[in-house]
Amino acid sequence: MVVPSLKLQDLIEEIRGAKTQAQEREVIQKECAHIRASFRDGDPLHRHRQLAKLLYVHMLGYPAHFGQMECLKLIASPRFTDKRVGYLGAMLLLDERQDAHLLITNSIKNDLSQGIQAVQGLALCTLSTMGSAEMCRDLATEVEKLLLQPSSYVRKKAVLTAVHMIRKVPELSNIFLPPCAQLLHERHHGILLGTITLITELCERSPAALKHFRKVVPQLVKILRTLVTTGYSTEHSISGVSDPFLQVRILRLLRILGRNHEESSETMNDLLAQVATNTDTSRNAGSAVLFETVLTIMDIRSAPGLRVLAVNILGRFLLNNDKNIRYVALTSLLRMVQSDHSAVQRHRPTVVECLREPDASLSRRALELSLALVNSSNVRAMTQELQSFLESCPPDLRADCASGILLAAERFAPTKRWHIDTILRVLTTAGIYVRDDAVANLTQLIGGAQELHAYSVRRLYSALAEDISQQPLVQVAAWCIGEYGDLLLEGSCEETEPLQVEEEEVLALLEKVLQSHMSQPATRGYALTALMKLSTRLRGDSNRIRQVVSIYGSCLDVELQQRAVEYNTLFQKYDHMRAAILEKMPLVERGGSQVDGEAKESKEAQLSETALVSTEPQASKLLDLLDLLDGTSGDAQPPPPQDPSPGGALVHLLDLPGAPPPPPSIPNLRVFEREGLQLNLSFVRPSGTPALLLIMVTATNTSGADVTHFICQAAVPKSFQLQLQAPSGDTLPAQGGLPVTQLLRILNPNKAPLRLKLRLTYNHFGQSVQEIFEVNNLPVETWQ
Predict the structure, then answer these.
(1) 408 by DSSP, 3-state: which?
(2) I want to staple 23 with a disulfide (CB 3.0 to 4.6 A). Which of 17, 18, 73, 116 is the partner?
């Protein structure tokens, strides 16, 4: 006898009436016991009611796995009421992780072959929700037959099921190619929307399908033109736009079909212009269609005038009151700035206005776009706007803004004086947020501009006298005062206001820096060295400087103490050499694009080879520690020591006839390229250690946005030994800035074919990217 239990409605009311969680659990446990007893007794008439209650319990988060087999029994039942609850239970309680889901394959196949539309709909919904790869392979032919059924209800559900099958098993694409061409003639918008989605999935997963459906581009153009020119329809129009969902789907499909295909792009150019000019953007539906149109224009081989129109549409989006639309416009313009720079430049004032948006995400995206728009013609105006923004921007944007201004000034500075003034203003406004190399870059810039030494030291002295809290500014000012303090006291600079400075004032200011609690150890080191250099540049007595230096001989900071002790020794024992030792620094040649690339590469190779020779005795231990594949092969031997006799080196140095031939050059290899980011490998095999291979990894960025937080990691098989050197940086400036380099040392004692696995992680266009790939096409010279 079946124990009486509650009806579904009564169960819901009792659960909702529970005042505590304990009462709710008590009600559910009691009812689950009744449901279990009913399932054990095998009551066929009330099984679907018991399962319906169990599904409600499952929706509340309580365990209901014991109802899985009851779902199978209800699906196999001939009654529609049982099948409806059984299929619903299968969708909720079964998935690919349970083997029980395979048991309903035969039931679904039987229901699909029936002529009852409601039953076929239930089976198709269940298959599209939880169908595994095995089920999709077994039932693909049945679904294909239903795609051409007379009933629009069944056809629509069959199309959606086919989409699920293609996503699960892409190799089934050949089965669904023929029906799709016929379904494009449908007038039912639901079926047409599903068909466009199915074709999109096919084209994304199969090159053959992509080639096949390029023939239907004229038909797709005709469907979209009909939608655009059709008037208001109660059934399909949303905010005055005729079926925007179908329009967006068609535009996405056209974007895929027209990418890198001239003929297809030419066919859809006129239509895209018509959609771009006739779509109403007063509502979100129209804006969505228009944005999808812009993306399509950007991706296909569209006409230049059409691309300008797309940029102008995005410019109008920047004036929209909706923040989401403005953000989408800024992101899209940032992607277009490299290919259509002049067109995007027309909207520069609007982009600059977006910098003052209170929304943090909008202002960050506007900052990235503003930095990408800087060029040699507008660098003065754009830098002024960015510096104004830097003074009032949120703290989390100051580092990006300051770094962007410094990079732009380095690339497009019209004069050295303007470059120095720009960096000084950035250091004064947000010195603590600048990159670590800002101090070195400015000191190199000032050192190389001999005609601006007096101007620079006066500007820096004035800035230091006003504020000593910005540590990078204090470091540059201390260095400059130490180098050119004599020019500061002369007062003969015509480019600045007259400034009379006494020796005592300069020394007092540097002592203030040394004693300030805000000064970092590195800053105190700069100030102490500046005082020491002023001892040879000032006309007065150097006893005050000597006293200050001697005080720091007992400083707790080891670096500062060492400097002070050495300077004291210089005063006491080598005073006659002090003037020569502390003379002005020679001009430093600036690195980067001004250095010839080939000379730099050859110099790096020579330095790397020299470093290898000096570190050979401990190379084996280092390589063992740094092996990335969890252990090394037992037969890997340490590299053989080089011949210690000087004769070989002398013959090699003088290039005498008896010298061994140099190792053959190995061609460079490009292994990665995406959205302007490129990764190139160059190879060197030292002649003295043929088992050792040096790989210089060079990353460059030609896109319109910086690549930040760049990390390159490598792994090799266990028979190799790998050592990674520290990279030169983690930021790749936009539009061909300084590259990031990293040296890999690979020991291959067995001369086995080399395989290299690389993992790249970085941030680009505001998104975090991770790429893992294997390099199998390395030149044979790298291992033979």
Answers:
(1) helix
(2) 18
Percentage, residues of the chain above pLDDT 90: 33
- Helices 395-412, 360-373: inter-axial angle, 10-degree rounding: 0
Q: Which superfamily is assigned to 669-782 in CATH?
A: Gamma-adaptin ear (GAE) domain (2.60.40.1230)
Q: At what angle do helices 503-515 and 521-537 cross, to 10 degrees?
A: 160
Give the torsion sign (CA, 265, 271, 274, 279).
negative
Q: How far is CA 209 from the centre of its chain?
A: 31
SS3 760: strand
Contact 155, 191 (CB under 8 A): yes
In tens, the pLDDT along 565-604 reads 999 898 888 888 888 888 887 765 554 433 344 344 444 4
The b/e string for 658-674 (b: 16+ C-beta within 10 A; e otherwise) is eeeeeeeebeebebbee
Q: From CA 77, how far away is CA 461, in angstroms rounded?
A: 92
Euclidean distance between the first and the last CA atom of the chain, given in angstroms as a whole number: 83
pLDDT digits (tens, 9 = 90+) for 343-388: 899 999 999 999 988 888 999 999 999 999 999 999 999 999 999 9
Contact 618, 638 (CB under 8 A): no
Instruction: Give the separation between CA 559 and CA 546, rounded to whole angstroms.
Output: 18
φ, ψ of residue 186 in degrees (nearest 5): -65, 145
Strand arrangement of the beta sheet that strand 756-764 belongs to: 707-715, 756-764, 767-775
Q: What is the 8-class DSSP label of residue 589?
A: P
Q: Which amino acid, residue 225?
A: R
Structural tokens at position 56: 């409600």
User: How many Cβ atoms from other residues are within 10 Å of residue 702's Cβ?
Assistant: 15
pTM exceeds cut of 0.85? no
Q: How far is CA 556 from its chain centroid? A: 43
Among 160, 156, 151, CA closest to 131: 160
Sheet with 677-684: strands ordered across: 669-674, 677-684, 692-701, 740-747, 721-724
Could you tell me the residue ranges of all domains in the chain? Answer: 435-582, 669-782
Q: Which residues, in sequence order, are CB contacts of 99 under 8 Å at separation 6+?
A: none
Residue 137 has a CB neighbour count (10 Å cut-off) of 15
Q: How far is the C-alpha of 308 from the C-alpha of 331, rounded, in Å?
A: 17
Q: H/E/C letters for each residue in 502-563?
A: CHHHHHHHHHHHHHCCCCCHHHHHHHHHHHHHHHHHCCCCCHHHHHHHHHHHHCCCHHHHHH
pLDDT tens-place string over residues 247-288: 999 999 999 999 888 999 999 999 999 998 888 888 888 899
Calpha distance 196→189 (Å, rounded) = 10
